[in-house]
Protein 1
Amino acid sequence: MPKTEQVQPEQMPYQEPAPVTIVKEPLKILLTWKAPIRPFKKRNREYFTTAGSIIFLICIILLFVKEFLLVLALIALSFLVYIMGTVEPEEVEHKLTNKGIITLGKTYFWEQLGRFWFEKKFNDEVLMIENFIGIPSRLMLLLGKQDKIQIKAILDKYLLQEKPELSQVEKMSKWLGEKVPLETNPAAKPQNSQKTKK
C-alpha cells in the first residue's frame, strides 16, 4: 500500500506581543451642589410628648421582663430623635464625577452603585442610590436648590433609574406612621355660621 505523506503545518515565526498601554482617565467633575445632610422638619411639643409617652410605656414593660439593654437602647434612640427634630442639619457638598459620586469626603464608584430614584421626605427632594459595597446600603442626597433634571441626565449615563419595592420593615414603618401619628396637622378653623335674625 502506498504511504500517505503527512503535511506539516507551516510554522509561523514567533512574534512578541504588542505592549498594552493603559490610559488612565483623569477625574472630571460633572456637577457640584450643596444641600443639607438630611431631611429636617422642626417638631412641635405635641410630637415629643406623644413619642415620650410611648417610649416611657415601652420602657416600663421592658423593665418588668428585665430587658435592661433594650431600655438603654430606647433611651439613646429617644435622645437621637430629639436632636434630629430640634437641631437643623449642616450643609454638605455633593459631586457627580466621571468615576462616581463624592459625598462627605468619600468616593462611591459607579461600579459599586445600583439603581437610583427620587423621593419626597418632608418638603425636601431626595436622591436615593443603592450601594452594594460597604455602609450605608443606600446613599441619600438632598437636592436642595439643584435642578433635578440636570442630576438625572448625568446619572442616566451610568445607572438605571428604578424605584425598588418597599421591604417588610419599610411597609410596617409606613403603616405605623399612618395609624399612629405622633403629631396632628393643624385643623382648619371652623367657620361660624351666621344666624339670620327674624
Protein 2
Amino acid sequence: MDTKEKAKIVGAAIKRARKQRGLVMRQLAEHLGVHVAAIGNYESGKNLPSTENLIALSDFLRVDQGALSRGEVVSLTDEPLADAERVTDPAPPPSGPLDIEVLGTTAGGDDGDFRFNGERQGFVRRPPGLTGVVKAFALHTISDSMVPRYFPGELIYVGGREPVPGDHIVIELFPENEGEVGKSYIKYFVRRTASEIIVSQYNPPKELTFNRYAVKALWRVIPLAELLGY
C-alpha cells in the first residue's frame, strides 16, 4: 500500500472515530496543538499523521492505535457510540466583539462585480474562527456571478492567510484612470503564472485571466467552517 492510499484509509478511520465519539475537528486540533485545517487534511487523506500524532489521536479517541493505522476503528471502551456527528459544541454560541469592519461597495458595471466605495458601513461580530486574526474585514456581495456559492447581498468575511489556488478570493484592480476606483471581483482561484492570475466563476461558468501587474490586492474569502472554528 502506497502512502497516498494509506493516508486515505487512515483519514477515513480518524473521521469515523471522531464522529462516533461525538467530537468536532476543533477538539482534535486543540488536543494536538495544531490548526483545524490540519485535522481536515488528515481526515480527507491529504496528509498522513506522524506516528506521534497518530498515537495522540488514538489516545484521545480511545481507539486502538494499531487498528487505526490500518484504517480500522476498534474502541477501547464499552461506552455507547454516537449515532450522528455533532457539528457544534454543546456550549452556547460564542459571541465575539463587534470589531470586524464592513467595507462599502457599489455595483461594478458590466464587467466588474463591484467597486469599493471608500466608506465604512459599520461593524459586524467577530466569529470565533477569527480570534487573533488581525487583517480581516467583511463586505456584502453585489454580483450574481458566483451563484450558487455566494448570492447578492450575502455577507462574506475576507482576509487571514494569503490566498492559494483552490480558495475563493476577492480581487481588486488598480484604477484605469486617475481619480477613479479600481474594479473588484469575487472569483474562484484556479492558478497563477509569472504574469497572470487565472480565476473562474459559476454564473455563467467561465474562466477569466487578470494581468498580475494590474492587480492591486488579492484577499481570501474565509469559508464558513473556518469562521466557526472547525
Protein 3
Amino acid sequence: MKYSLAIAATFGLLLSANTFAATEISAQQAMQQHRVSIGALSLGHNVVSPDDATAQVSKLADERGATSYQIIAMHEPGDNSSMHINAILYR
C-alpha cells in the first residue's frame, strides 16, 4: 500500500511540475499585474532557435525563483552562431 501511494505521489508531482513553470508575459501584463522584477538574464551560448530561447529562459527563470519573465531582446545573427537573448525576471 505504501509503495503504490509513493508511486502515485511521485507521478502527481511530475505532472504538476509544469504547472509551476515560469511563464512568458508582455511588458503590459507585467505592469497590469504589478509584477516585481527580481533580476535579468542574458543568454548567448547554445541558443539555436526562438523556441529554444524560450525554453532556456523559462528553465533559468524557474531556477532563480521567478514566476514569469519577459523577453526584451532577441538578436539572431546573420551567420550560424548562437542567438542572443535578454529577459527580465518577475515574481
